[in-house]
């Protein structure tokens, strides 16, 4: 069983790193697209059609959702630690798992409804409302993938708490 958990952790870690690379690539693409759009708009009076929509519907989604689980494992998500040092240890041992269970529930809902939306968008051929009319199902899938990876990592932190290292900043 322990070998299976370690193998699964490695597979999830690899998918996570690929997603993080996609997130970083999206930041670079967004920077280049915005720069080209502004340059085209200001210098040539000709913006890039659909650049705002591509940024909103694809690049922002991939930047946020593809990086969530990696950031979670690194302990990089925003946490309110101002009062933690004043709370007794037994209370923290009780509240931290409760917060993780709430997070797991919340992101499970995002995963479930994101998957439903992805399937619906594929079934009906949902496209962007901009002039390019590109398909939206891949963007919904990116959201679903990122939320599902985060659910796996939150579940891991609940059932195998020693695997996730939190740093107090």
From TrEMBL:
GO terms for molecular function: transmembrane transporter activity. One of its GO terms (biological process) is C4-dicarboxylate transport. It is found in: Cell inner membrane. It is a multi-pass membrane protein. InterPro entries: DctQ, TRAP_DctQ. Residues 30-160 form the Tripartite ATP-independent periplasmic transporters DctQ component domain. The chain crosses the membrane at residues 18-38, 58-73, 94-115, 135-155. Its main location: membrane. One of its GO terms (cellular component) is plasma membrane. It comes from the Bacteria. The keyword Cell membrane applies. Pfam families: DctQ. The keyword Chaperone does not apply. Keywords: Cell inner membrane, Cell membrane, Membrane, Transmembrane, Transmembrane helix, Transport. Belongs to the TRAP transporter small permease family. PANTHER family: 2,3-DIKETO-L-GULONATE TRAP TRANSPORTER SMALL PERMEASE PROTEIN YIAM (PTHR35011), TRAP TRANSPORTER SMALL PERMEASE PROTEIN (PTHR35011:SF10). This is TRAP-type C4-dicarboxylate transport system, small permease component. It comes from Desulfofundulus thermosubterraneus DSM 16057.
